[in-house]
Amino acid sequence: MNSLPTATADPVILDPRRRRTVLVGVCIALMAVIASVSGLNVAQPQVAVAFDASQSEVLWMINLYTVTLAALLLPLGAAGDRWGRKPVLLAGLAVFGAASAAAGLAQTTEAMLAARFLSGVGAAMIMPVTLSVITATFPDSERSKAIGVWSAVAGGGGILGMFASALLVDVASWRWLFVLPVALVAAAAVVAVRAVPNSREAAAHRFDLVGSLASVVAVVGFILVLHEGPERGWAAPETLAALLAGVVGAAGFAAWELRHPAPLLDVRLFRERGLAGGSLVLLAVFGVLAGIFVVLFPYFQAVLGWSGLVSTLALMPMAVLMMAASGLAPRLAARIGARAAVSAGIALAGSGLALMAVLVSVEGGYLSVLPGMVAMGLGMGLSMTPSTEAITSSLPRERQGVASALNDVTRELGTALGVALLGAVLTAGYADAIERRLEGVPGGAADDARRGIAGALAGADGTPAPAALVRAAQESFVEGWRQAMWTGVVVMALLLVAVLLRGPRRAERSPEPDGA
Q: Quick one: CA dihedral 486, 366, 297, 55, positive or negative?
């Protein structure tokens, strides 16, 4: 993607009204993708019962979408550069909409997993276009603001999507939550046809198929390590095999990309501090954020006994603060510097995780997690926009396809890694804790409880003392929660050190080449 001799990218759009229409269109498409990342979280207990699925199987239903999306973003983003961004966007919307409808109609675990996989394929065709259209068509003076809106949708839009999904789940059933992405796809397609400009690159070399395959192997390998390690053991054969595949895939990808005349991703770009630092921040921040969503909803629904709608309303303080901070972050970064703004955000987010780990309890309820959620919302919002701007400002306009694809990859790979790691830590912590509390519980009910908290609650009615089993499952979940939160604290602490040492230095865009 770095040696494309000519480009047919559309010029900067000077009409403010058309720019706003384009921004609305790509943000609706982005919302469809993001809502499907988080939407299934609101129905975890219902899905577990409907498919008779374990907590681990439900986690895979959630994570297979993000794994597929993360693994295919680079290859399909590059394909969009070659075939035309607008046609690929429209094709992706069609695939994504059909797969979402299929997920809502699925009757078996296998059918649901297949639908989630195809949804990930469609999303990987959609997402790279959204940011590259903004960076290519907005003038320098407006680009940072537009990226702030994009970051707000990417960060807080998932929570707003969960709110709509929860409303559908409570009013109808969990299957209706897939109506939301279908509706968003239809709206995005209408706007895209009418307003989104088309552009593509004229490639002098063949598509980097080897690099594409190596990147997929690397992404899937590392995600499997984090997904299986906490549950099966870090030294288990399956975990070690996944680690070997990830390492070999990553090493092979880097070696191949250094030699290919038109690499999928020029790894030499990571010598640029802004690009490397921004990518690392987004990887970790979105990973922790996605992992938190996975553990927050079962806490609200299974431990506190709330409906999906009330559980989503409980996330609104964090969502509102995150979106507000994302919009204010460019001004703060311009005043104190990008590295200081990002560092402050990371420190706030890490403090929020620590607060939740220390304060959470069955008795404390919502107030025991609210302070941590507030700190996390502010911190995540402050760190997202400057990091995105650091990536896009590191490359000139004609290479914004690379910048947007890399930005999307880090976000979605982080999401997949975070769900895998924090979800698996929670699952393993719950399994260890519940085992110590099952003495005297009948075999069938005990087996249900071992499969996850949803199974424990569903099976509790058949035990002599259902209240005791419910309480045991809730306390075990909180123990697993604490382990997941402290894992997130460690991730954020390591990230803060890395940013302080090698973080982005400024928020403004590097100079454009003449004639850009």
A: positive
How is residue 502 annotated by DSSP? Answer: H
Going by pLDDT thresholds of 50, 70 and 90, the confidence category of residue 94 is very high
Nearby residues of 179 by Cβ (< 8 Å), 6 or more positions away: 104, 168
Sign of the C-alpha dihedral, residues 12, 16, 21, 26?
Answer: positive
Per the DSSP assignment, residues forming a β-bridge with 6 are 202
Burial label, 515 (beta-carbon count in 10 A; 0-12, 13-18, 19+):
exposed
State the CB neighbour count (10 A cutoff) for residue 490: 11
Q: pTM for this structure?
A: 0.70
Distance CA 166, CA 161 (A): 9
Instruction: Note the pLDDT tens digit of each residue in 247-282.
Output: 999 999 999 988 887 777 778 877 777 778 888 888
Dihedral, 108, 110, 115, 116 alpha carbons, nearest 10: 110
Distance, CA of 416 to CA of 222 (rounded, Å)? 10
How far apart are the C-alpha atoms of 123 and 103, rounded to whole Å? 14
| Tokens (6 digits) for 229 | 């390690």
Q: How far is CA 30 from CA 41, 203, 298, 307, 492, in A?
A: 18, 27, 26, 27, 26
Q: Which pLDDT band, with edges at 50, 70 and 90, does 516 fall under?
A: very low
Contacts (Cβ under 8 Å, ≥6 apart) of 19 = 13, 137, 138, 142, 146
* Cα gap 193→195, rounded to integer Å: 6
What digits encode the pLDDT tens for the residues 197-222?
Answer: 776 666 666 777 888 899 889 888 88
In contact, 133 and 85? CB cutoff 8 Å: yes
- pLDDT at residue 147 greater than cutoff 80: no
Helices (H) and strands (E) in the chain — how many of each? Answer: 18, 2
Residue 322 β-bridge partners: none
Provide the percentage of residues in the chain whose pLDDT is more than 90: 17
Residues with Cβ < 8 Å from 513, sequence gap 6 or more? 396, 397, 398
Half-sphere exposure of residue 467: CA atoms within 13 angstroms, side-chain side: 0
State how far the Cα of 294 lies from the Cα of 289, in Å rounded to an integer: 9
pLDDT at 454 over 80: no
